[in-house]
Amino acid sequence: xxxxxxxxxxxxxxxxxxxxxxxxxxxxxxxxxxxxxxxxxxxxxxxxxxxxxxxxxxxxxxxxxxxxxxxxxxxxxxxxxxxxxxxxxxxxxxxxxxxxxxxxxxxxxxxxxxxxxxxxxxxxxxxxxxxxxx
Length: 134
Hints:
Elements: E1 4-8, E2 13-18, E3 26-32, E4 37-45, E5 54-59, E6 64-69, E7 76-80, E8 85-89, E9 102-106, E10 111-115, E11 120-123, H1 125-129
Antiparallel strand pairs: 1-2, 2-3, 3-4, 5-6, 6-7, 7-8, 9-10, 10-11
């Protein structure tokens, strides 16, 4: 109920995440478009999404799925289909307020756009994911 879905064009996969329930952990499933098969990727994922409390998008520059959820802290997470890994993102700058949210990834501007019914925020996930080493 309330699961979120995103398409990863690099792996030709649909990623489906479910929110944690009262007695159940968050789950991650993968549907392969090429093989037309489902697999359970994670039965106890560190983050789960719900369409009523966040959004799930694919960032073509960072090459990862991006989750924003009001049900976990931190609120931003990335998911790498090939590595089957969730990683938290600690956003810097003005952090979006809670409440009803929608968001989308804009590939032309390489930004994740977040709207919370009164404010608009943008974030470049690739720059946030890792700090450049000298």
